[in-house]
Amino acid sequence: MTLDPTYLAYPKRRLGYDHDLYPWTALRDRPPVAWPDGKSVAVWICVSLEWFPITPSDTPFRAPGHMVTPYPDYRHYTSRDYGTRIGFYRLLDAFAKAGVTASVATNAAIAERYPELIADIVAAGHEIIAHSTDMNGTIASGMPIEDERALIATSLDTLERVSGKRPSGWLSIARSESWNTPDLLKEAGLTYGCDWVNDELPYRFSNGLINLPLNHELSDRQIITVQQQSADSFAQQMTDAFDWLATEARGQCGRMLPIHITPYITALPYRIGAFEALLADLSSRPEAWIAPGDAIVQAWVDQQERGRERA
After folding, report:
1. Which residues contact 199 (CB under 8 A, 6 or more apart)?
2. Is 165:135 a contact under the CB 8 Å cutoff?
3. Peptide bond into 263 cis (omega under 30)
4. What's the confidence (pLDDT) of residue 135?
5. Is 12 left (phi over 0), alpha (psi -120 to 50) or beta?
């Protein structure tokens, strides 16, 4: 019995992916990246500053970290509110003490309800990344395109109105997207997104949008909350990751270490000391360039453009 010839005729069987969103490339095949001032590892600290409605929406899914017990779930609601009332200011103090600048991925609802938080972020020189409307503002395939377009616009418009500057970056809740999201983000004028975690350097989508990978494995939510490890262990793992990347980058291509932080997790009084020690350690490393996402993206874009000019 012979196979029908059409059995093996799969139109997407080719080098790379079964989509055209971006091309496949191995890191070793790309032009080398060098960060400013001869630094070899860009350290990107991204804080998720989120507002959780007390009643979660399960359409299309419930956001990670949302309320879990029968409602009203005051226990979990107030523990998350601790992050905005107390924890985030501990993080701002930690950043100031270490002399570093971070990105803050925040919901539009934070800007509407707590504009003083946005003012303090801007005054400290940190970047604001758009992070949907609130933690019920999830995206997935099946969401009507006009609803998704409106959600993105509302987030950007609100953050711009309150902060005075339109965000250039986007982080989806749970890093979840629909088939339309990359084009809608580009249409909205965004420079980069943070949802795709398959690399350690920025890369460009076919539509021109840049992806700045924010690896969820390097987050306090994953290591401390999900894996139930200590803050000291979290800090040690970030140090280990930095050491490995710095060794890899020696004489080769620059690397990037994203560190994803949540105020109601890391900024508790028995954890913040480990985080401050981590910042002090990283900021003292001669290989480290600690910078917000927009600066990392711009440095990468500048090098890509210089490379094209030389070619």
Report:
1. 27, 211, 213
2. no
3. no
4. 96
5. alpha
Mean pLDDT of 79-91: 97
pTM to 2 decimals? 0.94
From residue 177, alpha-carbon distances to 193, 194, 231 in Å are 11, 11, 30
**What single string gives the DSSP state of each residue in 199-263?**
-SS-EE-TTS-EE----GGGBHIIIIIIS---HHHHHHHHHHHHHHHHHHHTTS--EEEEEEE-H
Which are the contacts of 217, defined by CB distance < 8 A and separation ≥ 6?
Answer: 197, 223
CA dist 115 and 106 (Å) reads 12
Distances (CA, A) of 92 to 117, 156, 166, 206: 10, 23, 21, 36
Q: Tens digits of per-residue pLDDT, 22-66?
A: 999 988 888 889 999 999 999 999 999 999 999 999 888 999 999
